[in-house]
Specification:
With about 400 residues, the chain is of the alpha/beta class. The chain is about 25% helix and about 25% strand. The protein is globular.
Length: about 400
């Protein structure tokens, strides 16, 4: 069965919660558990039998780092990988509709669509088998998982038939409780999806014609799978949900990237033991699941002198002896098996929300200072301690 995969990587106007890190590298290439965020998606797609091509889709301008990554990923995974650049932000449905001919070229029977800003075990094979057991060539599958009742309001909520798993009702970020089953941002479509997206496009054009909008040609192509397509498909017998008990989380901020790294590192003992650091004579003491970049040199006394906790340290930064650089983790409630990471806002009640500490690139922290819950922009040389501040 010939398959393709589309990974939605967004563009530069997104990823604002990743600043200042996103100043240096596009968010999809931000390292999570030692490899670029989007590499986890590509690796999962490349393992699916029949996968013919992987398409990255977004509105980043041609980017040297992105081009280098695509070349190396093609070599590593032995599969064609291309980047399709949208002329503007077209939404989760508008982009795949705009490039539908590219997606369908070569005769793909079905294709996956994955949002780049999630981490997951990516049960793609299970979704494929589930899709073959349920529905027909004109039906589609959403990956779902269970959230707690309060946090479910922050996601797309799915009401499904408990016997058939057919989606009967779909609401994106409802104002009141609808369901504990949430949308994971990973889908399995057949080419029939383009008929439904096309109907939304035609409807948008008609509405914009009535409004006599001057830029209607562009706005008509902005289509959201969740609000514009799934809400209509729900209850039609064409949309199903495959529920996973495996790990899943959004990666909307730098703090959630630390949590995602931990989830992937925990999985590495089975999937990639070679990526985990091991204790060796004369080397540093390894505690837990740890990834050390091949270019990094870690002294055997690394547990002494300086403390760095819940922090992302940018490239070419220096932290002095006896300094303490610490942030507040944004992990889900460990006592609730269905808890997810809360949506983080940079400020609350006019104050910086306590979160992880981020040091941009080329930041110098002197000896014997304390940096707590702060964001330090690149190329700063600090001279004193800071707490709950953005250091410009």
């Amino acid at each position: 069965m010939p398959l393709k995969a589309v990974i939605l990587i967004g563009g530069p106007q997104k990823g604002t919660r990743f600043r200042p890190l996103s100043f240096e590298v596009p968010k999809p290439l931000f390292p999570v558990a030692g490899v670029p965020m989007v590499q986890h998606h590509i690796e999962a797609c490349a393992k699916v039998p029949g996968m013919k091509e992987i398409l990255l889709m977004g509105f980043y301008q041609p980017h040297e780092a992105l081009s280098r990554f695509l070349v190396s990923a093609q070599q590593e995974f032995k599969i064609p990988i291309r980047y399709l650049q949208e002329y503007a932000a077209l939404g989760t449905g508008g982009g795949i509709y705009h490039f539908r001919d590219q997606i369908l070229s070569g005769g793909a029977d079905a294709f996956f669509v994955l949002n780049a800003d999630v981490c997951s075990e990516f049960p793609l094979l299970e979704m494929l088998e589930f899709g073959q057991r349920h529905g027909d060539a004109h039906s589609f599958v959403i990956l779902g998982t269970t959230a707690n009742r309060t946090q479910a309001l922050n996601y797309g909520c799915i009401v499904a038939n408990t016997d058939t798993q057919e989606v009967q009702h779909y609401v994106e970020k409802p104002s009141t409780f609808v369901s504990e089953i949430i949308n994971c941002g990973i889908y399995l479509f057949t080419p029939a999806i383009f008929q439904h997206i096309g109907e939304v496009f035609q409807r948008n054009q008609q509405e914009l014609t009535l409004e006599e909008s001057s830029n209607g040609w562009q706005r008509a192509e902005v289509i959201r799978l969740e609000q514009d397509v799934f809400t209509v498909l729900a209850g039609s017998g064409k949309l199903y949900v495959y529920k996973t008990d495996g790990f899943w989380s959004q990666i909307k901020s730098a703090g959630s990237a630390i949590y995602a790294s931990r989830l992937y590192l925990n999985q590495y003992s089975k999937s990639h033991p070679e990526r985990l650091a091991q204790n060796k004579p004369g080397g540093p003491v390894i505690r837990g699941n740890v990834y050390i970049h091949p270019t990094a040199s870690i002294d055997s006394t690394a547990v002494d002198h300086t403390c760095v906790l819940n922090t992302i340290v940018g490239w070419d930064s220096t932290i002095g002896r006896w300094a303490r650089v610490e942030g507040t983790p944004s992990d889900p409630n460990p006592n609730d098996p269905y808890a997810k990471i809360d949506s983080e806002t940079l400020f609350r009640d006019g104050r910086l929300t306590p979160s992880i500490t981020i040091l941009g690139c080329s930041v110098t922290i002197p000896a014997e200072v304390v940096i707590l819950n702060s964001i330090v922009l690149p190329h700063k040389e600090l001279s004193r301690s800071y707490k709950n501040q953005i250091i410009l």
